Amino acid sequence: MGSSSPVSQSTPGPPSRGADAAVRREVVLTGDRPTGPLHLGHFAGSLRTRLALQHEHDQTILIADLQALTDNAGRPTDVRRNVLELALDYLAVGIDPTASTIAIQSGIPELAELTVLYLNLVTVARLERNPTVREEIALRGFGRAIPAGFLLYPVSQAADITAARATLVPVGSDQLPMVEQTNEIVRRLSHLAGRSLLPECRPLLSDTPRLPGVDGRKASKSLGNAIALSAAPNEVRAKVRAMFTDPGHLRASDPGRVEGNVVFAYLDAFDPDRATVQDLKASYRRGGLGDVALKRRLEDVLDALLAPIRVRRRELAGDSSAIEGLLRTGTARTRETAAGVLRDVREVFALDLSTIPVGGDWDHATRFPENVGRDTTHEEATE
Ligand code: TRP
Q1: pTM of the predicted model, to two decimals?
Q2: Which residue from 27, 29, 32 has its CB within 8 A of the most atoms of ligand 1, so it is best to mutate?
């Protein structure tokens, strides 16, 4: 399970002063694109880690709606709707808004400006080399018609991470290139500034192997082979019954394969009774354990996990104004940190407007540009 290791991975801090000084508090930033409901793969891979991290560290979870638009520009209202659904998923699994900050990317315009500035530190060749983006481009069949925003989303992700001054980024292995690119930008920026401006970050990889879809392929929304955290009981049951097991295991008495068997992958991820799972594997291999009995156990395990999530989700969904309030607060808090970072980065690029000799009140000049350059000293007197 990925729930206990993350908290013990931080580098040694200052000498212990009391019980909780053993773990150095770090700034953690993670995020998701709001492109659909979270599923059991997210739970095993990232949500459990976040639940474990939230009380030990300063964790921000970013709902990356701008990033979602980079390949969903044709479906803006879907992205918008999924923002709230994603927040519901977080809260339903136990993300505690008093411990974690949940923020919406598009509510933090500083991120867009940071992205534009960081783009000066990155070449097109470097963007094209990012292995995850390459893979995604191939998968989406963009060919040469790559949305420019999509190609540069790793830079916007660098803005997300650095705007929080994050040092720890819990991610799946597909996101490692983003962390690497972020640190490259941080180093270039420090070089330009002549001092260390922003902290570099470390990835925190989940130790849970990627959970397959019910058909044994990679879990994906478009294939419909994942089990959503919000799935109704009969849907969960139907998906478990459809799970790929071992095609050679025809009768209960036949010996069966455990490797590549989706039911065992899910039991490994979610059955709290490890010893019994080991016994089940042994008897499945030996022959004598049927798929139906095995699947019934998994149904019970998933029901125990999902029932309370479902209940909590229903409670929360009834009070969407409370969730909106919480998102507003989280976004405002994150924005404050981002504004400080942007101030520093603007300074590195010599964009401190207070040093521009425009004469008079700069703020007035930016708001009423038609007046800039006009001598207004005597206007009031003559009117
Ligand atoms: N790219 C991430 C994903 O697709 C989502 C994301 C956006 C993210 N911003 C982030 C992850 C910042 C970690 C840190 O899952």
Answers
A1: 0.86
A2: 32
